[in-house]
Amino acid sequence: MLAGTGCTLHLIEPFGFELNDAPGPGWTNHDLANVVVHPDLVPLATVLPCHGQQRGVT
């Protein structure tokens, strides 16, 4: 569904699994989706639609 909508999936590490081994039937086409992996929450806050305002993130 994600690949068909053009949305971006933001993932925050650590996952607890490898992206290649991700569980679930909906993950089979993840190579067609726009997936961005962030090492922690702070880098994610800089790309959110709130233009980098860190809503409670320190």
Polypeptide structure, described:
This protein has 58 residues and is an alpha+beta fold. The chain is built from two helices and two strands; from the N terminus they run αββα. The protein has helices at 2-5, 41-45; strands spanning 8-12, 34-38. The chain has a two-stranded parallel ribbon with strand order 1-2. The longest helix has 5 residues, at 41-45. It is flat, with a radius of gyration of 13 Å. The protein starts with a helix and ends in a 13-residue tail after the last helix.
Structure in a nutshell:
With 58 residues, the protein is an alpha+beta fold. Helix content is 16%, strand content 17%. The radius of gyration is 13 Å and the shape is flat.
Strand order of the largest sheet: 1-2
Tell me the helix content.
10-25%
- Mean pLDDT over the full residue set: 74
> Which structural class do the helices and strands define?
alpha+beta
How many helices? The count is 2
* Cα radius of gyration in angstroms: 13 Å
Cα end-to-end separation: 32 Å
- Kindly report the oligomeric state of this protein: single chain
Low-confidence stretches: none
Features:
2 helices, 2 strands
